[in-house]
Amino acid sequence: xxxxxxTYDLPEELIAQRPLADRAASRLLCLDGxxxxxxxxxxxDLPSLLSPDDLLVxxxxxxxxxxxxxxxxxxxxVEVLVERLRGDDxxxxxxxxxxxxxPGTVIYLAADPDAEPGDECLEVLGREDDLYRVAAPGKPVTxxxxxxxxxxxxxxxxxxxxxxxxxxxxxxxxSRDGSVAAPTAGLHFDDALFSALAGRGIARTEVTxxxxxxxxQPVRADAIEDHVMHAEYLEVGEAACAAIAAARARxxxxxxxxxxxxxxxxxxxxxxxLAPYRGDTRLFIYPGYRFRCVDAMVTNFHLPESTxxxxxxxxxxxxxxxxxxxxxxxxxxxxxxxxxxxxxxPCAGAREPA
Length: 354
Description:
By secondary structure, this protein is α/β, with parallel strands linked by helices. The chain contains 8 helices and 17 strands. It has 2 domains: 3-63 and 166-345, QueA-like (3-Layer(aba) Sandwich); 67-148, Thrombin, subunit H (Beta Barrel). The protein has a 9-stranded mixed β-sheet. Strands 5-6-7-10-9-8 form a 6-stranded antiparallel barrel. The longest helix is centred in the last third of the chain and has 13 residues, at 318-330. The chain is globular, with a radius of gyration of 21 Å. It starts with 26 loop residues before the first strand and ends in a 9-residue tail after the last strand. The mean pLDDT is 96.
């Protein structure tokens, strides 16, 4: 298939620049992938779309305030984006500067791009592929980020982060530090909605996938099969596997909240049966893939020609998904991270035969 098979027209004003005041006040476009039927609902309607036998699977990763600003000893400005923590004192990062940074380069950090740097710093240790390995002398990296870091809002949000983003670009159940982008389908859930789900007896479990900056990298290959997927770290534990087995035993569906939960479960089920998994994944899901674990999904709207749009197209059918996106544009839905959501069920042939 071609990258151009996954494009659509989106008016710029439909890209949500800020979240709604109420997390669960978003709209929910429901797409029946088997029939291609579209319905327009509210996100608070989600409990009514689920059975008490169903299981919701959430990604509990927590977004780091991963963007830092600083200057080299020569005075050159540097933007740092932490991609992955390496223990307390080291990290793999993206560096944006006018010149490459050699090992031994010290970057003195500032509170914002225009502020004067202080004594806190990072030292460049070397390269690992496209990333730099840096050390934080004398202070854990997470503490540096807490004190000086900014929330790494996606590039299509055309404003600087502010204090509100520390809470709103974060799910209410986030517990494990490690992401540079939010698992955005989870941003719609709040305590009231969890109470409504519990009131219907709908169970939940958690996995972890730390979202990397590669999630925003465009697909450059014309033939999508030639795209090389970025690596992200994930964990699917024994508790999640047991919860899924129990849902299957009672006849319920496994409902993944977000594409990160989808990729976590499908990676853990790659050998045919779901099993605990810990490690990196480069799983690239596009039409033709047969899902082994996921029966339904909640997801936000995704960028044209993105790997995430290809994933949801594999699940609910490319033509049906693009028709749903066209309907969402016509109905003035809000798009991307701070936007509205979809509830998807699979098209014919999307699931591996039982």
